[in-house]
Specification:
Layout: H1 3-29, H2 48-63, E1 67-71, E2 75-80, E3 84-93, E4 111-113, E5 116-118, H3 126-146, E6 152-159, H4 167-175, E7 181-184, E8 187-188, E9 192-195, E10 197-205, E11 217-222, E12 228-229, E13 232-238, E14 250-255, E15 259-265, E16 269-270, H5 280-290, H6 296-309, E17 323-324, E18 328-329, E19 331-340, E20 343-352, H7 358-371, E21 374-382, E22 385-386, H8 392-405, E23 412-414, E24 426-428, E25 431-432, E26 451-453, H9 454-473
Parallel strand pairs: 3-6, 3-7, 7-24, 8-25, 9-23
Antiparallel strand pairs: 1-2, 2-6, 4-5, 5-26, 9-22, 10-20, 10-21, 11-13, 12-16, 13-15, 14-15, 17-18, 19-20
Helix pairs in contact: 1-3, 1-9, 3-9, 5-6, 8-9
């Protein structure tokens, strides 16, 4: 079959299966597959809801004629056997971040509106997972009709813990051989050839908040996950509400026993894309500091939070600002704050280039914590990832994208982290179109009203089929 014949069949195929694909996306979105280690059990190491989504993803694969396998609940895969056991692979994930606040529709259903799908996971990453399975299904039907299999096995890996530790893929690579090449439909088009390092840690206050004596702050809580800018944060303080001034983004509520609840509302978003966001923890902390709603001991930790959450996102106030030619500038944001055992625990997420490393970040943040009477601990550190954009596989994918998008595209790097960084040869490849103009009611990944246009998903499915076909022809 020529490529032109393949493209001709593709148009009809996408038209035929599209409504089924949307319903399959809906079946996954309806599962609130947020990791819950507290409910983990044998066979479901990431919690029951995450496992339910994994099982549903594999059921879709099986219905589409693929050979589906669950791997002790850690992860799964679905194969379309080829003439060789060597593999070309895709990998997407069924887990999601918590819904957070600000939704105007049910986050755990698919709402169709003016050509867009809205729901948690339609873009990151349940929609793209379904695309990968339907791309394999296209080749399954082609093999059934022609009797000819692909030169290599096509494996669709179904991840289940990408949003947290990627422990699912680490388990997989410890038990299975890696593919010749893999792409993850979990980022932007045209193609991601590099990802900044991802550094997570947390500050803990030495001063116990909420105690007797001079303490003014009884409790503080904000954000949903460490890798997202929080859109909401609140504190319960000992104070007289009428004495406080009004402020944009701040709501005051009187509570019993002489307490006041202060609620800050910002603009949330993904930690790797902080431009245009407004950190609600920063809003809250600045209000407390500006109005003296803190004891002398509490002020030090609030000032530390100010440096992280309200002083920009380039790391300058933290002493870690840096940049390089390949990855650009470092970013740093505060994702969540919790009251744990009477102390405040504030997380930090930094996406860093090659001009600094995790040890240097740990050292500087540790010194900053000490200067503010706090402590610091590292939660995880993933080093930067890069694949040569001139490699045959990357150029193959770019040509496939350009065939449908027009023009001549180039690979680029991002601050986000995908599964690609754990493979020997891999990249992230769409399906989000960063230059696409979308209505202001369409939210981003990890944000409220997460959405994606159906037209961009339909085109992405065609791009993936053509790219897989071409990858199979490479030596």
């Amino acid at each position: 079959m020529t490529e032109e014949e393949l493209k001709g069949r593709l148009d009809a195929y996408v038209d035929e299966v599209w409504e089924d694909a949307v319903e399959d996306i809906r079946s996954l979105v309806r599962i609130r597959s947020v990791e819950d280690l507290g409910a983990a059990a044998p066979g479901m190491p990431w919690g029951p809801a995450s496992h339910d989504a994994l099982v549903q993803g594999l059921k879709i694969a099986e219905r589409l004629g693929l050979e589906a396998h669950e791997c002790e609940g850690y992860i799964g895969y679905a194969d379309l056997p080829g003439d060789s056991r060597r593999q070309i692979a895709t990998i997407a994930h069924t887990d999601v971040v918590p819904e957070g606040l600000g939704w105007t529709v049910d986050p755990f259903d698919v709402t169709r509106r003016d050509g867009y799908l809205i729901g948690r996971g339609v873009l990151d990453d349940k929609g793209p997972l379904v695309l990968s399975l339907y791309a394999a299904h296209f080749f399954k039907r082609l093999a059934d009709r022609t009797g000819k299999r692909l030169p290599r096995t096509l494996r669709c890996i179904v991840g289940n813990a990408e949003e947290t530790t990627m422990g699912d893929l680490k388990w997989y690579l410890a038990h299975y051989d890696g593919p010749d090449f893999c792409f993850s439909p979990d980022a932007d088009f045209p193609l991601i050839c590099g990802e900044k390092g991802v550094f997570h840690g947390h500050f803990t206050s030495a001063e116990a908040f909420g105690g007797e004596g001079e303490s003014r702050i009884a409790w503080m809580d904000g954000g949903t996950v460490a890798n997202a800018i929080p859109g909401r944060a609140e504190a319960l303080v000992r104070a007289d509400a009428p004495a406080f001034p009004a402020a944009e983004g701040i709501e005051l509520r009187e509570e019993p026993s002489g307490l006041v609840r202060i609620v800050a509302t910002g603009r949330g978003g993904h930690a790797s894309l902080p431009e245009g966001t407004l950190n609600a923890i920063g809003l809250l902390v600045d209000y407390l500091l500006d109005n003296g709603i803190c004891s002398a001991g509490e002020r030090g930790f609030l000032e530390l939070q100010h440096a992280l959450c309200a002083s920009g996102h380039d790391g300058a106030a933290l002493g870690i600002k840096t940049s390089d030619e390949k990855f650009g500038p470092l970013t740093a944001i505060g994702g969540t704050v919790r009251t744990v055992g009477g102390r405040l625990v504030q997380t930090v997420d930094s996406r860093y280039p090659t001009s600094i490393d995790g040890d240097a970040i740990r050292e500087r943040l540790g010194a900053l914590a000490e200067a503010h009477g706090a402590s610091f601990a590292v939660d995880q550190d993933k080093v930067p990832f890069y694949i040569d954009p001139q490699s045959p596989e990357v150029q193959c994918l770019l040509r496939s994208y350009d065939d449908y998008a027009g023009g001549r595209s180039e690979a680029f790097v991002i601050g986000g982290g995908t599964y690609a960084r754990l493979f020997e040869r891999a990249c992230a490849f769409g399906p989000h179109e960063p230059k696409e103009e979308v209505p202001d009611w369409v939210g981003p990944e990890h944000g409220a009203d997460e959405g994606v246009s159906e037209e961009s998903l339909r085109r992405a499915l065609k791009v993936y089929v053509l790219a897989i076909w071409r990858l199979m022809q490479l030596d």
